[in-house]
Amino acid sequence: MRAASAALTPLADALALLLRCAKPVAPRSVPLVRAAGHIAATSLTVPHDIPAGLTALRDGFAVEAAQISGASPYAPVMLPRAPAWVEAGERLPPGTDAILAAEGLEHRSAVAEVGPGEGTRAAGEDFSEGDALLTAGERIEPRHLLGLAAAGFVEVAIREARIRLVVTGAPDVLSPTLSAVIARAGGLTETVAVPDDPERIAHAIAADGADAVFVLGGTGFGRSDRSAEGLAQAGRVVAHGLALRPGETAGVGEAGDRPVLLLPGRPDAALAAVLALGRPLIAALTAAVEPAARMAQISRKITSIVGLAEIVFVRVQGSDIEPLGGADLALRRLIEADGFVLVPPEREGYPVGSVVEVVPL
């Protein structure tokens, strides 16, 4: 185990050590109704034009517009044959190019005119063959499901990282929040509660069925802090004590070919370590493509300690963001956060009005 006085490992180095044995997990297929929120394993394109031909947008009679040009109640136009009735979404019969409303026909006479294409959707107007529907590594959103279903897909391949969250000691108030953060990143959490006992912690870390293990609590240097000792029994501790504020007592290691992340038990520190290290790990396991950064202006200055990477929780207020704080942030303030700013170790912070990168929670 690392001594309390040993040098802290830079965040970038700790992340590199954590990711070195992280490989994308095998894809699996799920029905569309269960795909939202997961990370797409493959890119999907439209297999054919949608619609495949001229299609009705509303119920009515399929007609050739040129045949009833100028038709009105005062100048009805007799049609050579009764037009076919079509429902919305149906293909128009050959030789027709418009939809005449029901009240526009009296017996076999048109009493209203329509223009070519009126009430219809042309072939390929929704999608053309080869249009991109989903990109590998993209988070599947509800909007994607509409296009996928319209193109005839009934399932989609995803990558989902299985994360075992080993909760040490008691009480546990953090696992629901951490499980939600993990799920939003593309992971599936299995929570296991164990006492502050190295052997029990080691057993939970080494058990099969997980792609990575997060150990919550017991990472400090108190008499009941035994998580690093448990990791050392199950595998090895690569770094314990990080230049991350809050989160200085976090650690990284590995058990077999499985990455292990040690999370401090304090809420602000645990959340900071998951955001700075856990989410990038899950992204590596799911081969997720990170979305473009959001830039915003801070309404108050951010101060930071040179030499430490610092997570500062923020609240979005219109086009600006309000820094809430980082280390030792009270829960009433922490639960107001909807994003964070990562201050690099070479900076002392940001003056008021600075435009910074904001990562949503």
TrEMBL record:
One of its GO terms (molecular function) is molybdopterin molybdotransferase activity. PANTHER family: GEPHYRIN, MOLYBDOPTERIN BIOSYNTHESIS PROTEIN. GO terms for biological process: Mo-molybdopterin cofactor biosynthetic process. Belongs to the MoeA family. It is an enzyme of class 2 (transferase). Its EC number is 2.10.1.1. Pathway: Cofactor biosynthesis; molybdopterin biosynthesis. It comes from the Bacteria. This is Molybdopterin molybdenumtransferase. It comes from Methylorubrum extorquens (strain DSM 6343 / CIP 106787 / DM4) (Methylobacterium extorquens). Pfam families: MoCF_biosynth, MoeA_C, MoeA_N. One of its GO terms (cellular component) is cytosol. It catalyses: adenylyl-molybdopterin + molybdate = Mo-molybdopterin + AMP + H(+). Its cofactor is Mg(2+). Keywords: Magnesium, Metal-binding, Molybdenum, Molybdenum cofactor biosynthesis, Transferase. The keyword tRNA processing does not apply. Catalyzes the insertion of molybdate into adenylated molybdopterin with the concomitant release of AMP. Residues 164-284 form the MoaB/Mog domain.
